[in-house]
Design brief:
Length: 100
């Protein structure tokens, strides 16, 4: 029966597979529900297993990002902010032969 079970992260409703995953407690403030679920739009066991694994990996990556963003990183105040690449050059950059 293992070939008919695409994994613990899925369930079947009316023959269609759905992905479901509990939201970790430390990230629930970012969600409106304690779990996330959506249709995989397939009736195929193998396709559902592949798509569920891919969805789980994407969630893991996103949750890692949220944890890093929310963490109290030592020295966080010293990190460089994203620089605006469209900004005009500084005066000493635009004037040949001058330096800061």
């Amino acid at each position: 029966m293992a070939e008919n079970n695409p994994g613990a992260r899925t369930f079947v409703k009316d023959g269609v597979f759905y992905f479901v995953r509990r939201v970790p407690k430390d990230l629930r403030q970012h969600y409106t529900s304690p779990k996330t679920a959506y249709s995989l739009r397939t009736r195929s066991v193998s396709v559902a297993a592949t798509w569920a694994d891919r969805a789980a990996q994407k969630l893991d990556d996103y949750w890692h990002h949220l944890r890093i963003k929310d963490s109290d990183l030592p020295g966080k105040h010293m990190l460089r902010q994203a620089q605006n690449t469209n900004a005009a050059p500084m005066v000493w950059e635009a004037t040949p032969g001058t330096q800061q």
